[in-house]
Amino acid sequence: MLTAVDHVQLAAPTGSEEELRAYYADVLGMTEIPKPPVLAARGGCWFQAGGVVLHLGIEQDFHPARKAHPGLRVTGIEAYADRLASRGAEVVWDENLPGHRRFYSEDPVGNRLEFLEPLA
Fold first, then answer.
1. Contact, 116 vs 74, CB < 8 A?
2. How many separate domains does the chain show?
3. Tens-of-pLDDT digits for all 120 residues of the chain?
4. Backbone angles phi, psi at 18, to 5 degrees
5. Where residue 98 sits, what CATH number does that domain have?
6. Rounded distance, CA 109 to CA 64, Å?
């Protein structure tokens, strides 16, 4: 039986780790978590915030995920959107999901991310 999502992996191009760290840690406010040494040798980086874990793995023939994306639940979505925008990230609001406020953004390598909060 499935019980939870352990993590979501997104792809990234070779040499993009510093850009990813700046975005996922400084912009999104996530914490970088260490990769096991055998996996660290492959490059990439992992991040966590609460129960959300994202793995950014290096892909030689990288193409950003423009449609596929993780949906990340947040609290205080307006303030969170302001945080991203004030740090230079694009925020694109979308009102098409009933019962939720949500917006999209892209990481520095072009992967789509959805941020959503259920309405009270």
1. yes
2. 1
3. 988 899 999 999 999 999 999 999 999 999 999 999 999 999 999 999 999 999 999 999 999 999 999 999 999 999 999 999 999 999 999 999 999 999 999 999 999 999 999 998
4. -65, -40
5. 3.10.180.10
6. 7
